[in-house]
Automatic annotation (TrEMBL):
InterPro entries referenced in this protein's UniProt entry, alphabetically: MFP_Efflux_Pump, RND_pump_MFP
Gene Ontology cellular component annotations, sorted alphabetically: membrane
Lineage, top ranks: Bacteria, Pseudomonadati, Bacteroidota, Bacteroidia, Bacteroidales
Matches recorded under Gene3D superfamilies: 2.40.30.170, 2.40.420.20, 2.40.50.100
NCBIfam families reported in the protein's UniProt record: RND_mfp
Protein name per UniProt: Efflux RND transporter periplasmic adaptor subunit
Species the sequence originates in: Bacteroides acidifaciens
SUPFAM superfamilies registered for this protein in UniProt: HlyD-like secretion proteins
Superkingdom, taxonomy of origin: Bacteria
């Protein structure tokens, strides 16, 4: 069956703020490890914003204490303040708003450095240093090329013969080595063309690229079966016929075929 391979794990990474890109540490095709730095923004404005937010939060904490003391509580009693009273005091003091702004500024500063979420390969990196980051576009994509997934379709009458765990062989259309895998998922839905989608986990060994077109063969042990080449089957009056040789004469045999691959039929 014809199919396509895709990375099982894929992460589109983007910056959350539009600061200037200070450094880019990788390029397309580079293999990276989880947690490795990919790029970072100029953090001057972000760090100033974080410092201001931290000062505002400290002031709000002092204001919150003043509000509670004004209501007759002492610092030792703050843990005993009723929930509703504490909520109103935090609103009056501006504590909740200051805390929210501080947490946002802290997150923006931390996320000014992009890191790899898992081991993989860098793709679709087109940005350049010293230019503002575009928050609406993906900065780069990380693909796990070791764990690939082949997606292909089978006819609905073959569905009964496809099981999770069945072995598969994947061969790129571009040629080269074949890769082994196993069926990981069978979608229990037949489309309007009578086809069923199947997925298989494949060990790409770092040699398969996401989006690559492939041919997938499913292998399953069906016991002893009579297998014949497709070229041996001819049609006569709409019926399948196979000729056999007996005592020097060609014998005419009607057959019914079942499962098939690219070159062979199973006689059922």
């Amino acid at each position: 069956s014809n199919g396509k391979v895709n990375a099982r794990s894929k992460a589109d990474l983007r910056f959350e703020t539009g600061e200037v890109i200070a450094r880019i540490y990788v390029k397309n095709g580079d293999r990276v490890h989880k947690g490795e730095k990919l790029a970072e923004l100029d953090k001057f404005r972000l760090e100033q914003k974080l410092s201001q937010a931290e000062d505002a939060l400290l002031k709000a904490e002092l204001e919150l204490k003043d509000v509670l003391i004004g209501q007759g509580y002492t610092p030792d009693d703050f843990s005993k303040v009723p929930v509703e009273t504490m909520r109103i005091a935090k609103v009056k003091s501006g504590y909740e708003q200051s805390k929210s702004q501080y947490e946002l500024a802290k997150r923006e500063t931390e996320h000014a450095t992009l890191t790899a979420p898992f081991d993989g390969v860098v793709a679709n990196l087109f940005s350049k240093p010293y230019n503002p980051a575009n928050t609406s576009e993906v900065f780069c994509t990380i693909l796990d090329t070791k764990g690939m997934e082949a997606e292909f379709t089978v006819l609905e009458n073959e569905l009964a013969f496809i099981k999770k765990g069945d072995k598969v062989t994947v061969i790129p259309y571009a040629g080269g080595s074949s890769f082994e895998g196993s069926v990981s998922e069978v979608n229990p839905l037949v489309d309007t063309n009578g086809m069923v989608k199947v997925k298989a986990d494949v060990n790409g060994e770092g040699k398969l690229f996401s989006g690559m077109n492939v041919r997938v063969s499913v292998r399953r042990n069906l016991g002893e079966q009579l297998v014949i080449p497709k070229t041996a089957v001819v049609l006569r009056s709409g019926k399948q016929v196979v000729f056999t040789l007996k005592e020097g004469r060609a014998m005419w045999n009607y057959v019914h075929t079942g499962l098939e691959n690219a070159t062979e039929y199973v006689v059922s």
